[in-house]
Amino acid sequence: MLDKLEHIAEEVSKRLAKSKVAGKTVTLKIKYSDFTLQTRSKTLSYFIRDKSMTLETAKGLLYQEKLNNSVRLLGISLSNLNTENRETKEKNSISVQLNFKF
Q1: Torsion from C-alpha of 25, 44, 74, 16, nearest 10 degrees
Q2: Which CATH number is 2-99 given?
Q3: pLDDT tens for each residue of 27-60
Q4: Which residue from 2, 20, 27, 88 has the highest number of Cβ atoms inside 10 Å of its Cβ?
């Protein structure tokens, strides 16, 4: 799962760089094999866009609690972006999800 998480963090980082934005809130979505969904998030006191900080934060969220079941899907999103127009903040989030093969 860590390899997949690293791949997702890299993709999020590329999208943030392309959009020239950074975010403060990292959200990790975990969908289990029984299709239950768990969402964990952390808001930082500073903006991030690079892969290493995104990955480090996502790993912390992954290990925050024991996983309930086998994982079917992982996703990382960054929100609370440093865009000038704060009214469209929710529309301006960057997220990537990756499915696992069974």
Answers
A1: 60
A2: 3.30.1490.100
A3: 999 999 999 999 999 999 999 999 999 999 999 9
A4: 27
